[in-house]
Amino acid sequence: MMNWAKSQKVGLSMLTFLGDPNSELTKALDLELTHPGPVGVLGPGRCKRFAMHVVDGVIKAVNVSESADDPTGDSDPSASLADGIMATMK
User: Fold this and answer.
1) What's the domain count of the chain?
2) What distances in angstroms separate CA 68 from CA 13, 56, 59, 73, 84, one per listed residue?
3) In terms of domain of life, where is this protein from (predicted)?
4) Does pLDDT of 2 surpass 80?
5) What is the pLDDT of residues 32-59, one digit of tens each?
6) What is the Cα gyration radius of the chain?
7) Domain range for 74
8) pTM of the full predicted structure?
9) Of 64, 70, 75, 78, whose CA–CA distance to 38 is shortest?
10) 28 with 40: CB under 8 angstroms?
């Protein structure tokens, strides 16, 4: 995750990037991508596109980019982009 953060030029910022290699958190938060279209291409155990605001271990907001006809959120990822999650912090 640190390499991805560096490629996004946010290296050692106030953001924390976390991996979920066994999909444990993904499943606990009900964020597993289960739509047959993307799963057929990407395989099982994938996470939906989301951003989360957490303060002192408490989830304050979760924004998921998805719609019925676009379960991966590719056509409109705005909810999970920085501006989308930052809007929940006001």
Assistant:
1) 1
2) 34, 33, 25, 10, 19
3) Eukaryota
4) no
5) 887 777 666 776 778 888 999 999 999 9
6) 14
7) 2-89
8) 0.73
9) 70
10) no
